[in-house]
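Note to self: the last two entries modelled the partners one at a time, which told us nothing about the interface. This time every component goes in together.
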Amino acid sequence: MIDTHCHLLWRIDDGPSSPMASVDLARAMVEQGVDAALCTPHYSTRFPTRTAATRARFEELGRSLAELGVPLRIALAAEVSSKLALSVPLEELRERSVGGFVVVELEPGAAAEVPVLVAERLRGARLTTVFAHPERCRSVRFDPAALDEARGGGALVQVVASCLVGRWGRDVAEGGWALLDTGRADVLASDAHTATGSVQRLRQVVERVGLRYGREVVDELTVRTPAEILSLEPARSG
Ligand SMILES: [Fe+2]
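The predicted structure of the combined assembly is written out below.
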């Protein structure tokens, strides 16, 4: 699996609290079948992370994983709040993109028009939006078609795997399954924060998605589309 959303960098946001906790999380991800991961530290009013600091931490983690023999390829972007995606200079978003893709969080209270506003602003700068947490967004749960115009313009929709087994309760789980059932989910991701958290159920959730939609759909959600985002050759599925 190629994971396009996780918080692997220590003491940058609400992710791991130490270098070893980051390595433990990386090992947990590998055990759950992840072989490449996009680090997406928050970029929001609450976590106004700077690219120089995250880049330095990212490179430090890369060296640690290599020294310790942890077989996880990593890339760096960010999880940008929809508010900042609509307001900061586009250069700030470009600096936090990977291969032209920007991961943008749809917060629970984001309005129904936010997806198309974000996607169009980024598209004007030749950036493609990957919407994170649509399952938690109340206006999307009320009307999943709120994503359709943005998707029609090339934006992608990322569902957090653990939501499907109740990480944020029943309503969010139903919202996540509804996105998959209606063909509006383009990628599955972990949103992992700690080694002992929801990442421990990642393999189980991916298997459950496979039972419901088949292996082809799982490969598309967890390998092929994520590989395009990271500009990676899919090494293997799993
Ligand atoms: Fe996240």
